[in-house]
């Protein structure tokens, strides 16, 4: 059975590096590569009545924006290098969703960048450190 | 359209007048003298009363009470039976994680609550107790529990008959289910009439209870903690009104949504602080609790010194409970209808929690604190938020300041929610155009200024009148559609028991 590698990306240079690294590894295995972009979101976030009414439309717009701005260019680049790759955009808590999604697609390994986009996590991304601590499958942290 | 222009003319007419009299000290009094009689006339029409046992019983109170009781019995005490299932829905047990990013049940409830939890829970309860005695508390709780059933019906319908606009946003609420469901039943004219009537009344309700009452009581509390007569704001109610109006305008007209988001985030925290402070007051006065409970229960059936006796306490309880939780009014259906679900019944069930949290929990806490602290006895000249503030202050001298912050936040979040409702009503009546929205927003903020300056009595009567008037078309619709909702409810429960809905948690 072919293996499946999951890459968590957030639009940062570090996560793009992780994706390229995973693609290289996947090619040699060979393994299937799935790229997941998580839009940080909590089901307990509070909206005003007006925001709530347009939430569904806003969600579509946000996903389309992530798709055209980040996901499609990244996938195109990886495909050019010959990777068997697909992409997915979801809403949720980044590290928890990465693990849940890994289970959903029966991924064998998770690849992430060491540093996320958030300027607060200068040394080690909080998503990454949480992921390393709780993931039931191997996590490859790409510097 | 003509009506709107007229309203705008009226509203703007006062502004130059206000400026002209700025030099005089009696600017607040002048505004009062002009609007007071108008408010009283409106209140007199809506509160048409019949004498019962020597007291005037307003028919609108009977209308609200009977509807809530009817729906409770008709749906087999759904308010109690489905209460637990609502927790499952709120936790997301049946929510597909793939739909994350859409409005969850929890978010729809939180949005609706930030619109309903307001000064009604703090000041309104004080009004109920000063007019109806401690016994009004019992009737308030009873009405809160029964009102859960009315809320279930209207929020289910709100989701079921919401429409999607061209820009992908949704619009729900009583306007939509009245017009669409009656049209479906071959009575489009009747549905349109009721919906238009509702939209007109909600404009009044937004101006009154959702705006003037909130700013009025927020001003009173800010005045109290800044030194009453010595305060900078003494005799400058209009200035306070202008400040609040300016903030509202920045959000609604200026489009600075961030202020609204921050306010709505702070409201749940303030509600918890308010409840915790209430508990502390009860603990401090624990020796007076038995006496307070006997006052409340005894006062419900044979109150002493309350105008109208038993019926008087009952009327106050129902009025203040309904004003606070808006069950049967049809407003909350707007906020609830944004939820992402294929089963409208689920949001109706979640909405059961709204009157429960609002009235049975928060209002009851206010009532207990007021009764336990004993400040309502011989309160005489103080009423509304000042009474609640004194009650808390008797045990926690620093609390009135915290209360002032809470009150301003509660008021502001409710004002913002209604500033949206008034635009929706305007859009329904006059078209979904930016100009209509702008005119509605301008009318709204003018009344924010006026609300601060008016006396509490006039504001309460006008606010109640307009808000309760919404219940006339809304409850007609609820009765008409009750059998449909019941069939949907039965179908949903059958499929739920059969395990047709996948569980994700």
Automatic annotation (TrEMBL), chain A:
Residue ranges annotated for the UspA domain, each copy included: 1-143
Gene3D superfamilies tied to this protein: HUPs (3.40.50.620)
Entry similarity comment: Belongs to the universal stress protein A family.
Keyword Nucleotide-binding among record annotations: yes
Protein name: UspA domain-containing protein
UniProt cross-references to SUPFAM superfamilies, sorted A to Z: Adenine nucleotide alpha hydrolases-like
CDD domains per the UniProt record, alphabetical: USP-like (cd00293)
Organism of derivation: Salinicola rhizosphaerae
Automatic annotation (TrEMBL), chain B:
Membrane topology: Multi-pass membrane protein
Superkingdom of the organism of origin: Bacteria
Key words of the record: Cell inner membrane, Cell membrane, Membrane, Signal, Symport, Transmembrane, Transmembrane helix, Transport
Localization annotation: Cell inner membrane; Cell membrane
Segments crossing the lipid bilayer: 30-50, 57-77, 122-142, 193-213, 237-254, 266-284, 296-315, 356-376, 396-424, 436-459, 465-482
Signal peptide: 1-20
Pfam short name (any one): Na_Ala_symp
Family listed: Belongs to the alanine or glycine:cation symporter (AGCS) (TC 2.A.25) family.
Protein name: Alanine glycine permease
Species of origin: Salinicola rhizosphaerae
């Amino acid at each position: 059975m072919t293996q499946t590698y999951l890459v968590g990306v957030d639009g940062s240079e570090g996560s793009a590096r992780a994706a390229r690294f995973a693609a290289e590894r996947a090619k040699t295995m060979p393994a299937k590569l799935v790229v997941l972009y998580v839009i940080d979101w909590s089901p307990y976030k509070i909206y005003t009545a007006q925001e709530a009414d347009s939430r569904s439309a806003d969600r579509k717009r946000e996903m389309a924006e992530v798709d055209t701005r980040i996901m499609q260019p990244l996938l195109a680049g990886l495909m050019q290098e010959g990777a068997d790759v697909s992409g997915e955009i979801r809403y949720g808590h980044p590290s928890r969703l990465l693990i849940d999604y890994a289970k959903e697609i029966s991924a064998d390994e998770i690849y992430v960048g060491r540093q996320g986009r958030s300027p607060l996590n200068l040394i080690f991304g909080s998503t990454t450190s949480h992921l390393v601590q709780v993931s039931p499958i191997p996590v490859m942290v790409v510097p | 359209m003509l009506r709107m222009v007229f309203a705008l003319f009226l509203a703007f007419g006062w502004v130059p007048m206000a400026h002209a009299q700025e030099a005089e000290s009696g600017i607040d009094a002048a505004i009062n003298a002009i609007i007071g009689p108008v408010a009283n006339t409106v209140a007199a029409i809506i509160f048409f009363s019949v004498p019962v046992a020597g007291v005037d019983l307003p028919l609108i109170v009977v209308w609200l009470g009977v509807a809530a009781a009817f729906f409770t019995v008709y749906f087999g005490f759904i308010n109690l039976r489905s209460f637990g299932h609502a927790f499952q829905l709120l936790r997301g047990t049946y929510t597909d994680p793939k739909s994350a990013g859409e409005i969850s049940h929890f978010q729809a409830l939180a949005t609706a609550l930030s619109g309903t939890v307001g000064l009604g829970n703090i000041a309104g309860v004080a009004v109920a107790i000063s007019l109806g005695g401690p016994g009004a508390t019992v009737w308030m709780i009873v009405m809160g529990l029964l009102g859960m059933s009315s809320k279930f019906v209207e929020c289910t319908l709100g989701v079921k008959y919401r429409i999607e606009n061209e820009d992908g946003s949704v619009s729900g609420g009583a306007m939509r289910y009245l017009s669409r469901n009656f049209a479906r039943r071959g009575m489009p004219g009747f549905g349109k009439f009721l919906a238009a009537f509702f939209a007109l009344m909600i404009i009044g309700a937004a101006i009154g209870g959702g705006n003037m009452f909130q700013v009025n009581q927020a001003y009173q509390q800010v005045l109290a903690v800044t030194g009453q007569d010595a305060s900078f704001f003494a005799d400058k109610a209009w200035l306070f009104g202008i400040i609040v109006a300016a903030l509202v305008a920045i959000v609604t007209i200026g489009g600075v949504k961030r202020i609204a988001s921050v306010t709505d985030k702070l409201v749940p925290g303030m509600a918890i602080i308010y409840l915790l402070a209430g508990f502390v007051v009860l603990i401090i006065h624990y020796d007076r609790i038995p006496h307070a409970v006997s006052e409340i229960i005894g006062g419900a059936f044979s109150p002493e010194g309350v105008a109208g006796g038993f019926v008087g306490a009952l009327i106050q309880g129902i009025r203040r409970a309904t004003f606070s939780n808006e069950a049967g009014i049809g407003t909350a259906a707007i906020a609830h209808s944004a939820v992402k679900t294929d089963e409208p019944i689920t949001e109706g069930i979640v909405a059961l929690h709204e009157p429960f949290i609002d009235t049975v929990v928060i209002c009851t806490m206010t009532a207990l604190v007021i009764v336990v602290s004993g400040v309502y006895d011989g309160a005489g000249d103080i009423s509304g938020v000042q009474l609640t503030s004194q009650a808390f202050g008797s045990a926690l001298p620093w609390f009135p300041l915290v209360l002032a912050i809470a009150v301003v936040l509660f008021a502001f979040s409710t004002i913002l929610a209604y500033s949206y409702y008034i635009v929706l009503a305007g859009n329904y009546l006059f078209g979904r155009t930016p100009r209509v929205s702008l005119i509605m927003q301008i009318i709204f903020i003018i009344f924010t200024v006026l609300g601060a300056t008016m006396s509490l009595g006039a504001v309460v009567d006008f606010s109640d009148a307009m808000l309760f008037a919404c219940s006339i078309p809304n409850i007609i619709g609820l009765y008409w559609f009750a059998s449909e909702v019941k069939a949907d409810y039965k179908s949903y429960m059958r499929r739920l028991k059969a395990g047709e809905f996948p569980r994700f948690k």
